[in-house]
Specification:
12 strands; 27% helix; 288 residues
């Protein structure tokens, strides 16, 4: 979902580029560890689904014998219990929040997906305890005229760079992987021919994923025939950049989507603005 506070949103030339998915060296070094942590905290079913990765087949064991062998195996999920225990210890006493009254709505619904700011904090802590990293992007909703936050898992933060700006070390590039509903892409690009209904936001994002949160029109035979009930997710890359080409740092956002050939092409460039250009990337890493 593009940020709601826009100076200008302009279509970009669809020139494929494979470099946008380049992964940071730390990402490459940690990805297997993250996957292992996800599997063990996911429980017995997830561990067994990985097959021989965690339960190697015995010598001369047939497929049927291995299946029976795996079915009989037991996995004690100590990792998940540990994450929940430490999360409970951290939040045994609720944190003190000093927020102005203008942010009461944000406090009650921090991510535009019904999650309170307190519950959002707990979700971040669980992520950090599980894989050691998470990220938060601060965004703005024009529909509700207030800020909100979007959580990104470690595996979604593909790349990043830092630099010295104004005597401080700050983020100058962040590349985020997202999964977007195809219906939302068509709606946001104006291909549906239907005006959005008034009221709450049409799009909510949690963990980098975009969701359609309401039906704008009643179901029709044409809608059913067109796959009204299908869920087609498309990959999207969000590039957050601190552009310093004009001298002063300016926060910009590029949206890249996969084309029919499976390559990513830039489809949109966004220049967020609140009265004046934003001089920093509103993204923060959580964890060591």
């Amino acid at each position: 979902m593009p940020p709601g506070f826009l100076l200008r949103a302009c279509p970009a030339k669809r020139k494929p580029c494979g470099m946008v998915t380049t992964q940071h060296p730390q990402f490459l070094a940690s990805s297997l560890k993250w996957q292992r942590a996800r599997d063990v905290t996911g429980g017995e079913d997830r561990v067994k689904a990985a097959g021989e990765l965690y339960l190697p087949k015995l010598t001369d064991q047939s497929p049927d014998e291995y299946h029976a062998y795996k079915s009989r195996a037991l996995f004690f999920n100590a990792s998940s219990r540990t994450v929940e225990a430490f999360t409970g210890m951290i939040f045994r006493k609720e944190p003190t929040e000093e927020l102005p009254a203008e942010l009461d709505d944000f406090k009650a619904d921090a991510n535009l997906h019904g999650q309170s700011f307190f519950d959002y904090q707990k979700a971040i802590i669980r992520e950090v305890l599980t894989v050691g990293r998470a990220g938060t992007l601060v965004d703005w909703s024009d529909d509700e005229a207030r800020p909100y936050v979007a959580r990104y898992e470690a595996e979604q933060i593909l790349n990043w760079k830092t630099g010295r700006v104004g005597g401080k070390t700050v983020l100058t590039l962040v590349v985020l992987k997202e999964s977007v509903d195809a219906d939302e892409i068509r709606r946001l690009e104006g291909k549906t021919g239907q005006a959005p209904a008034a009221g709450k936001p049409d799009v909510k994002r949690s963990g980098g994923k975009t969701f359609n949160t309401r039906a704008e029109t009643g179901p029709t035979d044409e809608g059913v025939a067109a796959g009204e009930f299908k869920h087609t997710m498309k990959e999207q890359i969000r590039v957050l950049r601190l552009d310093q080409s004009s001298g002063d740092p300016v926060y910009t956002v590029d949206i890249w989507r996969k084309d029919a050939a499976g390559k990513f092409s830039k489809v949109l460039t966004i220049l967020p603005k609140r009265r004046e250009a934003i001089p920093l990337i509103p993204f923060v890493f959580h964890g060591p």
